[in-house]
Structures are given as C-alpha cells and as structure tokens.
C-alpha cells in the first residue's frame, strides 16, 4: 500500500515538474529575462536589507550580476526535483536499484535534451549545452537524494522488524 502511494505520488509530482519546466521554456527570451530579473530583485530585497535603498543603477548592476547565477540555480533545482520524483518512482519498481536509478537518470537526461530542443523553436531562446549539463547534475542530485532516502527507510524498516 505504502509503495503504491509513493509510486503514484512521485509519478504525479514528476509530471507537474515536467509541466513547469515546459511552461518556463515556452516563454520568449525577453519574457524569460524579465521574469529572471524580477525574481532576482525579490531575492535581493529579501536577503540584502539595504537593496531597496540603493540607487536604480546600483540595483540594476547587482541584479545583472546575480541573475545568471539564479537562473543556473533554477535549472538545477527544477531538475533536482524531477530527478527526486523519477528516482522515487523507479525505486518502487522491482529490479536492481542501481539499474532503476540509471533508467530514471536517462529519462531525466532525455527530458532535459527535449527541453533544450524545444527552446530552439521559441523566440529569443536557444539550445544551451551548459543548461543541459546543469540539468543533468540537478537530476543526478535528485536521484541520489531518492536513493539515500530509500536506503535510510529500508534500514529503519529492517531494524523495526
């Protein structure tokens, strides 16, 4: 019962993350840039108390400097979630856990590749090999988190029986 709940919850969450990735990638280059800029401004205002007291040029310079970093973090974070949910789903299946995790990683990598190809057809966007690398690392981190959770759960379950 618990395994089925994890399986279908993970499946639904993976689909939701994939939809979010597709939605973000469907935005034009200009819209995506404005969204990144707005998000960076909110993060700066939340973490740097003096940010709103800076002049417009100083704020723009800080946002311009840190916006690319937050974009990389967003790629990594979204694909970490996708890896976590695909990894959790795969671990509910029968088979060797290493092979199942490799299948989950392959799926995430194919989705990352399809995301980059999709961006070729969106105005102002392009296929970025660096994004593909960050996506792959994020997916790997998520799958490792799923594996770690699985082995911790399995270890605790064995101690209780």
The major β-sheet equals: none
Strand content: under 5%
Give the overall form.
Answer: globular
Count of beta strands:
0
Low-confidence stretches: none
Compute the number of structural domains: 1
- Helix segment count? 5
Q: Look at the helices and sheets and give the structural class.
A: mainly alpha
The residue fraction in helices comes out at: over 70%
Overall pLDDT metric: 94
The N- and C-terminal alpha carbons lie at a distance of: 18 Å
The secondary-structure element order is: HHHHH
Structural account:
- It is a single chain.
- This protein is mainly alpha-helical.
- It has helices at 2-26, 29-47, 56-91, 97-120, 129-160.
- It has five helices and no strands.
- Helix 1 (2-26) packs antiparallel against helix 3, helix 1 packs parallel to helix 4 and helix 4 runs antiparallel to helix 5 (129-160).
Which tags fit this structure?
161 residues; 84% helix; mainly alpha
Give a summary of the structure in a few sentences:
By secondary structure, this protein is mainly alpha-helical. The protein contains five helices and no strands. The chain starts with a helix and ends with a helix.
Layout of helices and strands, plus pairs?
Blueprint: H1 2-26, H2 29-47, H3 56-91, H4 97-120, H5 129-160
Helix pairs in contact: 1-3, 1-4, 2-3, 3-4, 3-5, 4-5
